[in-house]
Amino acid sequence: MPDQKVKIELSTSSIFKIVAVILLLWFLYLIKGILIILFVALIFVSAIDPLVSWLRRHRIPAWVSVLTIYLTLIVLISLVIILFVPLVSNQIQKFSSNFPAYWQKIDTSLSNINTILVSMD
Q: Which structural domain, as residue segments, surrounds residue 71?
């Protein structure tokens, strides 16, 4: 098989474009935290836009609509936290206090299974 030389030529503009793309990707990596925040904000805006539009049609200013929606969401999330955290905490506490008994049952069951498997051989 004869040796064939492959010659690749890059123009100066192609090199500049490659460097620009690398720099752009590096810059986007540096500001990824800001981009995530902007993305989440865009999702929030998209989610509340129909309700704000409906309230504006009923002659409620946009800033009042947005403020009302955010305050309502904060109150609802707070209520969920206030109502469910004590329940979950209580369940975790009960589970941790009963864990040794659960572990003993699991250990006994596994020992029984092991005994059965050994006796089958």
A: 61-121
